[in-house]
Amino acid sequence: MKFHRIPRDFNMRKLWLHAIRRENFTSSTTTVICGKHFTPEDYEVNVHGNNVLKKSAVPSEFDFPAHLKKEPRHRRVLKRKHGESNSKATEQTSDIGEVEEEPENGDHVDD
């Protein structure tokens, strides 16, 4: 089992301590957290072939009691209207409504 020291970097330390969710908890330079609180994606293989924790990893695997668990956020999925495309013309005209076609002979019509 691997253990990881809480980072010294202020911002990363803050993220880790927030993730741990312990009230009135003060960490020291020797405070560690068990590797089971990290996902496999939090690790990378170093030049020596060892699995090491990524610098950007934050512990996320906890078995909190029900009253401390966060509700998963439900994301709304936006769908395109039927017939809409990614073409440049659609993007440019979407704010102005209908597009009037210019006469084929190149003459411009003034309103």
UniProtKB/TrEMBL annotation:
Q: Where is the composition biased (Polar residues)?
A: 86-95
Q: Which Gene Ontology molecular function entries are recorded, alphabetically?
A: sequence-specific DNA binding; zinc ion binding
From the record, give the transmembrane residue ranges.
Answer: none
Which Gene Ontology CC terms are recorded? nucleoplasm
Q: Which InterPro entries match?
A: THAP1/10, THAP_Znf, THAP_Znf_sf
Q: Name one Pfam family in it.
A: THAP
> Zinc as a keyword?
yes
Record SMART domains: DM3, THAP
Q: Spell out the residue ranges making up region: Disordered.
A: 64-111
Q: Where is the THAP-type domain?
A: 1-62
Q: Where in the cell is it found?
A: Nucleus, Nucleoplasm
Q: Which family does it belong to?
A: Belongs to the THAP1 family.
Question: What's the protein here called?
Answer: THAP-type domain-containing protein
